[in-house]
Fold:
Amino acid sequence: MSSQDIPEDKHLPSEQGDAHHAGVAVADDPFADPGLPAHKPRIQDIDERAAKRSERTVAMLFTISMLATIGFIAAYVTIPVDKIVFIFPLGKVSALNFALGLTLGAALFCIGAGAVHWARTLMSDVEVADERHPIQASPEVKAKVMQDFADGASESAIGRRPLIRNTMIGALAMLPLSALVIMRDLGPLPQEKLRKTLWAKGKLLINQNTMEPLRPEDVAVGSLTFAMPEGLEEEQHDFQVQIAKAALMIVRIQPEDIKDKKELEWSHDGIVAYSKICTHVGCPISLYEQQTHHVLCPCHQSTFDLSDGARVIFGPAGHALPQLRIGVNKEGFLEALGDFEEPVGPAFWERG
Amino acid sequence: MSTADNSKRKAPAGERVADYFDGRLGIYSLAKANMRKIFPDHWSFMLGEICLYSFIIIILTGVYLTLFFHPSMNEVHYHGSYVPMQGVLMSEAFASTLDISFDVRGGLLIRQIHHWAALIFVAGMVVHMMRVFFTGAFRKPREINWIFGFLLLVLGMFTGFTGYSLPDDLLSGTGVRFMQGAILSVPVVGTYLSFFLFGGEFPGGDFVARFYSIHILLLPGIMMGLLVAHLILVFYHKHTQFAGPGRTNNNVVGMPLLPVYMAKAGGFFFLVFGVIAAIAAIATINPIWALGPYRPDHVSTGAQPDWYMGMPEGLIRAMPGWEINLWGHTLVLGVFIPLVLFPLVLGAIAVWPFIEAWVTGDKREHHILDRPRNAPTRTAFGVAWIAEYMVLLIGGGNDMFAQYFHLSINAITWFVRIGFFAVPVIAFIVTKRICMGLQRRDHDKVLHGRETGIIKRLPHGEFIEVHEPLTQARLHTLTAHDQYKPAELGPLVDENGVERKAGRMEKLRVKLSKGFYAEGNQITKPTVDEYKEIQAGHGHH
Structure:
């Protein structure tokens, strides 16, 4: 459907420019354009004393700018970089930053203010009209261009020799494939990486605050403890990647308060361990309300009920937090009884 | 050549330099067209300048920052002069940002100018875009430039995002994690995209270096090209102007580039730079030392992106957590729908000029700006878009709003969910009514004159307010705008009596045109005859 079959012009206003064009007999048309109003002189145009005053103002602004630049250099040289001062109402601020910023600001601002004041008071403010010319080319120019193009195209013989044209298009279309292929080594393939964490049977739960293995008696009812798997060290080169998946939060709930059967089975004496990584887009969950056993992700406010299989009770998360099955080893330390059974963190296409 | 003539008078040095370059670059022809180019004056025309200047400031300060910043995720123990972080394990990116803030003299200032200028740059672009939108400056011949500007806005947002992610601090790392989670939600290829972008699993050791090259080279390079094209088109099309005495569609009235705008616009650069420097002196921005280095298992409450990312943040916070699991695959609608809505909501404003051009069928050049009231449907659409944006900003900061206004976060989230659909509709209707009211007021002002506030008692006791007729200049200004008539379906039978069916698009266009321009959707402006009739009837009414 082309807009050609609609009579377009019927609802357009009258042609531009002819309705109220300047020069129409003004008496006849009270809405006609009276033309540019006469220039109203400014005080500086008629009073040389006012003009002098403006000149002095502009010169003063430029002078302040010079002084401010000197001030900037002086501040840079004299104020120690670690000096903190109290400035009302900002509080404690870096003295150097404050001094450099204000002097630089003043040096710049005064140049600007001087230039603008100069333009507004001393340069001519007589308004002049420039004519516009249509952007569109004239029919002659267009005809010439079309002819040139037709000549060029026919001289290239591209229309008569489709074999050349088609193979050229093919070659140009295929070329970007190289650019695509060469991107392959930007990263490894996902494989099973998002499904596995460092947790495995027998790995102790290390308290992140003390870096000691956790015992059940370390976990009080109502407290929230963060843990990571035994053997993971901050200095390790892949620490960030591993902690991004393995981060664990541990709470203790009265066993009779645990509503979910599987949760109870996977817990030890009311101690439950859940992935700390939100299933929405992967923020670490860090807010725990002990009365309700709710945890809240501070990023997007997804709320999970830790007494009910960590199901989502509010917010944008799409599924429950994965639980880690835990128990106690012979020495009385909490240990994992395996890896998470489902991928931790945000959902993805292959998650299933 | 008349060498005899020239030898008599030796041109001054400046002229000789200019001659040198003219012989090689043709600068005289260039200057002839542009040196005394006329620019019209209006405060709103400065908004674009703010964007241009803050962009320049960002480039200048950004180059300085690259001299000190180490775009590396190698972990180091910090031993700089910021005591609270002594010995803490952190990436080189974070450590070098601390160095810039605490050990490089003036480094903190430049960092803060850079960040503040970026915030102002994007804000300036939005406001500048609104100016162009509400005055109809996007109409032919400026549609392409509108698109250039829109692309600059979108690229500016992503340049900002990649920029504030570079220090690898706790807050920005959380933002990067959010982005990675959103990429994971893309059906079929999301996991692969994420692995390729991050060089493996999140966070890996590559993203700072990769974001760095995107932030300082790729995106600014594209933006520089678009910016130059944007400015060339502004020069080429010449500036728009508001209607007024002596200002027509065929001229541009104002003052010349040399000297007035050289001084005003040049001076304005220094004003913008000076104000941003002063802000950077007194207002701390992004205090990464208070946040600490990024750890994927740490987070702070009240995590907020820079303001221009608040809108996608709102989308992701308000969306219910829908997830579909079928045939061993997961469709993460709860994240993917916001990801798709993000460009759609932004793009809604970008396509408007083309919709409007299609509805009006107007192929003429427009250089006279509309007053927003005289295009009620367009203005209402623009306000509806802003309202949508605001709703999403509230959604993006729902935790902050809940905290500061003591509201329930659940209630705010539900407000955003419903408001996403309802608020733009309400804003549209209200704005359209306001525009019509203002049009009516203009209509009355033209016909009956200005209310003077002087109450007169007539001999028979009636009180009237004296109305003062407008000057011809005012009359012209208030009646200079074009008014479209609603389109009609063309004849369904051609001259040979053959019936044709009106296409669906044609029907839609006519329907939209009626919605834009039919009676009840705009106030017909007064005619000369109406005016004369009322003036003849002794003026008071």
